Amino acid sequence: MCGILGTVIHEGSEPLRSTLIGGLRAVEYRGYDSSGVAVLGSDGVMLSKRAGKISVLEDYLGEEPLVGSVGLGHTRWATHGEPNDVNSHPHQDNHETITLVHNGIIENYSELKLGLIAKGIHFHSETDTEVVANLIGYLYENEYPGNLIDAVRHACRQLKGSFSLVIMARDNPRMLIGVRQQMPLLVGHGKHASYLGSDVTAFLSMTRDVTYLEDGEMAVLDHDTVRFIDIATGKQIEKKRERVDWDIEQAQKGGFDTFMLKEIHEQPQVLRQMLERYLPSPAEPVYLPGLDEFFEDHDTRLISLVGCGTAWHACKVGRYVLEGLAKIPCRVEYAHEAQYHFAPIDDSAVTIAISQSGETADTLGAVKAQKALGSRSIAICNVVGSSLTRIADFTLYTTAGPEISVASTKAFTCQLTMLYLMGLWLAERNGSLDPDELRRLKAELIAIPDKMAAILHSKKQIDRLARVYRQVNHMYFLGRGLSYPVAMEGALKLKEISYVHAEGYAGGEMKHGAIALIEPGFPSCILAPQSPLLEKMVANMEEILARKGEVMVLTNNPDRFSQYDVHVFSFPDCPQLYSPLLMSLPLQLFAYYSAMLRGCDIDQPRNLAKSVVVE
Ligand code: F6R
Hints:
There is one protein chain. The chain has 18 helices and 27 strands. 53% of the residues are buried. The protein is globular and about 80 Å long. The chain is an alpha/beta fold. The chain folds into three domains: 3-251, Aminohydrolase, N-terminal nucleophile (Ntn) domain (Glutamine Phosphoribosylpyrophosphate, subunit 1, domain 1); 259-457, Glucose-6-phosphate isomerase like protein, domain 1 (Rossmann fold); 459-597, Rossmann fold, CATH 3.40.50. The strands form five sheets. The protein has an eight-stranded antiparallel beta sheet with strand order 4-3-6-1-12-11-13-17, covered by helices on one side. The longest helix has 23 residues, at 435-457. Fructose -6-phosphate binds next to helix 9 and helix 16.
């Protein structure tokens, strides 16, 4: 997730600083670990890039106005290589002919890089992007001299993965090329300049007239004309202009009212990307580079999962997943408990610390404490280069992209997905699962993002349920097995953004005390995925109904509930193992709509902060 933009002035040159820096600020929410700009002026290309926020780049630029005819900019969310000055975009080829910015991941970059090294090309960064710059540069110089369009087209045909690119050439001071392949890119048609952006926000203060690129399409901005070309055939295509009627603030949230709603909606896409990266096909092994070396010669006898809040709920799901798939005993502790409670642990253990931010003080403390006792550590983390990734022995990145809303949503489902991937990876390595079953589970995991998208299409039903429960002050969320931590997460979401008191309970625990609160009208949400425990959840529900409690059910077996006077939200069929992924979405939406109805500040709930860096 990076923000990119580019601009071509139709005639002459002008200071591009405010266009580029202003545009980058508007897409900063997409990534903010480093940024850079490049302009093509009378003295050639001037390139400036810096690790850190855009303000660091601004300080570095000083009073420089960035005069040029063509310019591009990038704000990065690192994927390949840590966020430092060298890995920041823009990148150039060896001869500094091509300058480009990139959003996405080039999956076959290592292979392409080896081919380019064999041709005598040197690399300075750890990025996949520098490979693209050199590939285009090589083709432009050797195979398509003077034809930037064909050089870019033929380079793109060699790239695998998801990417959008904005490219300029030193000897072509009036041309900018944009390509799109599974990463957003659109053209802005201004009066005196044309634009390319990963988001309309990148150039919204200049123009609202846009053309959206589709996958496999290229836009060629040349003086005041814009042409669209099919990358595969090279043929020109006609595309329509559209007028955007967003204001800047809305657009920064991608057109959603809040970052939380936007992030809820991003889940199918981020999971799809994550799976494309780590599990491209059910026929292939799960691809978690480096994990082999981590586990080599390690006789792992215990996995200790630690985290806080939502991440702790992911740990709880992770226990069922890793014990079920990899057959390795697991224990789960709150990180703040684990750091002071020295439960027996030694060098036969692996600590898995889960954190979106990678900066949670309690989680850092738990990892340090368990490392001191001999345990090796893995971070499951969303933020590249964060403290947790620096102290852990190994990191698995969740690639959820920046999560801005305080209430965690997409980071949670990405954490679960990484635990599933790790479970499948360990099962394959340890031979703890029948190969046919393993393959089936991989295929079912790959199918999850589409099922999530289907749930989002039914969000109005959840809105209606939130209206039914708009007056309540308390609510139970009940689940068993894998659904128990999901029930706790559903309760936490409702609590933190709508301020309704909610408790997540294990269904079997109800009758040991909590049932005392059930009275006519007391609401409970029953998590009842199709599983061997379904009938036990039906029994819990009956106990509540017998006391005239109100019940809402999440299930993928709605027929089982048709005879009851309950509200049912039905989600798509899936193996029980993956039901936490699908049940999380309606629970997030329920909390969201409940908070909206109560007029709460969704993205910045009271008393909370996104990153809890104190104990
Ligand atoms: C809840 C939430 C918090 C965090 C917790 C850990 O929506 O966001 O409970 O999950 O503070 O934060 P990270 O994952 O950054 O360690």
